[in-house]
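Private note to self, pasted from the team thread so I don't lose it. Backbone tokens:
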């Protein structure tokens, strides 16, 4: 009875966490990855919509080293309906080694999902493109809350060539973050 009850609780949760969709296993993660250069703040420029960011604008993530060799992940997004910031904290660990952009990330331990960097500005670490274990998830991130239309178009084209349905992509409103940066610059 207990085992059946646990399965009825855990099975739907695993289904939600892993999503149903075609696997991105064949898409390689970037290599010659410098984890320390990747740390810091990344703004979400575009994403395939999903339930855990529904209604959120001004999304960004902060990545920091953990003492245990992993990476602390803090995701922020503004919920205009609640007029408040939503924060999610998690942890990520490299799947192989720190020179490959493939990690396992968890916001609901003990469950982990895939965080795979599939495109990266290797020279300056100014933008990246992330997927998970299926084609249902894709994010374009930038060090700035603004990305040129040309750069965004180039990344969307690359994603489409990899098989992602880019017509589903949502361009994330970053106006709060842009205004905050502008106000901060005015104080200096």
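Design output:
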């Amino acid at each position: 009875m207990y085992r059946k009850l646990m399965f009825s609780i855990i099975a739907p949760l695993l289904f939600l966490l892993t999503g149903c969709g075609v696997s991105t296993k064949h898409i390689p993660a970037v290599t010659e990855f410098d984890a320390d250069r990747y740390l810091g703040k990344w703004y979400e420029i575009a994403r395939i919509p999903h339930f855990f960011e529904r209604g959120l604008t001004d999304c960004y993530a902060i990545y920091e080293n953990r003492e245990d060799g992993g990476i602390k992940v803090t995701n922020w997004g503004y919920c205009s309906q609640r007029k408040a910031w939503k924060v999610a904290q998690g942890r990520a660990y490299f799947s192989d080694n720190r020179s490959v952009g493939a990690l396992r990330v968890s916001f609901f331990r003990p469950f982990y999902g895939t965080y795979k960097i599939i495109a990266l500005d290797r020279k300056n670490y100014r933008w990246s493109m992330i997927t998970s274990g299926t084609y249902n998830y894709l994010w374009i991130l930038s060090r700035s809350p603004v990305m040129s239309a040309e750069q965004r178009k180039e990344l969307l084209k690359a994603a489409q060539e990899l098989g992602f349905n880019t017509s589903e992509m949502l361009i994330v409103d970053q106006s709060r973050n842009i205004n905050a940066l502008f106000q901060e610059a005015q104080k200096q």
